[in-house]
């Protein structure tokens, strides 16, 4: 009788541990995690969900992403003294606003590994390539009106920024989608984005220019 009781106790204890283990994971499904990441990074939505899902502040993430955008865009203009950071920051805001208005995305899990799943995000981002001819024509017109623009890097940079400010609000969503991979790693009851900064940069590229890395 004692042996039978011990056996039953072990069975019940094992079952309880199993149920406890199954119920301990409160992490959202990988696809939902991907949607939360995109909505927070690009559309400034699901901010609280982002913190619950990834354990990090969305506010800090968004500030860092904007700062990175400003730094990289300034580098392409060869303006590194910070004098045009506000203007470039305005471009970031314009991109985000237009992306909210016209872009779209879908997501699907392509690797179902419980601890290291992969989600593919298909993005129909802003078709900035179709605006390039217009921006170039606008820049040439400005240089023709004021030849010093072509010789002064600050004036040239301002002209480029103004061209983007005019073009971005008119950009339409690309008919062709580009793919961005999100690699997740299980982190207790949350997820961790593998190489998060690179993922965010690829996501911005996809939504803001409809191009892949």
TrEMBL record:
<dbReference type="Pfam" id="PF17118">
    <property type="entry name" value="DUF5105"/>
</dbReference>
<feature type="domain" description="DUF5105">
    <location>
        <begin position="25"/>
        <end position="208"/>
    </location>
</feature>
<keyword id="KW-0732">Signal</keyword>
<protein>
    <submittedName>
        <fullName>DUF5105 domain-containing protein</fullName>
    </submittedName>
</protein>
<feature type="signal peptide">
    <location>
        <begin position="1"/>
        <end position="27"/>
    </location>
</feature>
<dbReference type="InterPro" id="IPR031343">
    <property type="entry name" value="DUF5105"/>
</dbReference>
């Amino acid at each position: 009788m004692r042996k039978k009781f011990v056996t039953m106790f072990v069975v019940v204890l094992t079952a309880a541990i199993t149920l406890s283990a199954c119920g301990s994971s409160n992490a959202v499904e990988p696809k939902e995690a991907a949607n939360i990441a995109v909505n927070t990074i690009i559309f400034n939505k699901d901010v609280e969900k982002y913190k619950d899902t990834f354990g990090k502040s969305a506010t800090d993430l968004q500030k860092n992403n904007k700062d990175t955008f400003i730094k990289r865009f300034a580098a392409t203009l060869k303006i590194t003294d910070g004098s045009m950071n506000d203007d470039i920051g305005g471009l970031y805001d314009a991109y985000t606003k237009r992306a909210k208005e016209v872009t779209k995305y879908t997501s699907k899990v392509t690797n179902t590994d419980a601890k290291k799943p992969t989600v593919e995000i298909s993005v129909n981002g802003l078709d900035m390539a179709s605006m390039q001819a217009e921006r170039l024509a606008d820049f040439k017109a400005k240089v023709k009106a004021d030849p010093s623009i072509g010789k002064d890097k600050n004036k040239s940079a301002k002209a480029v920024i103004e061209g983007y400010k005019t073009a971005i609000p008119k950009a339409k969503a690309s008919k062709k989608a580009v793919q961005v991979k999100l690699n997740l790693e299980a982190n207790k009851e949350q997820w961790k984005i593998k190489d998060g900064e690179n993922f965010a940069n690829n996501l911005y590229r996809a939504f803001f220019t409809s191009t892949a890395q």
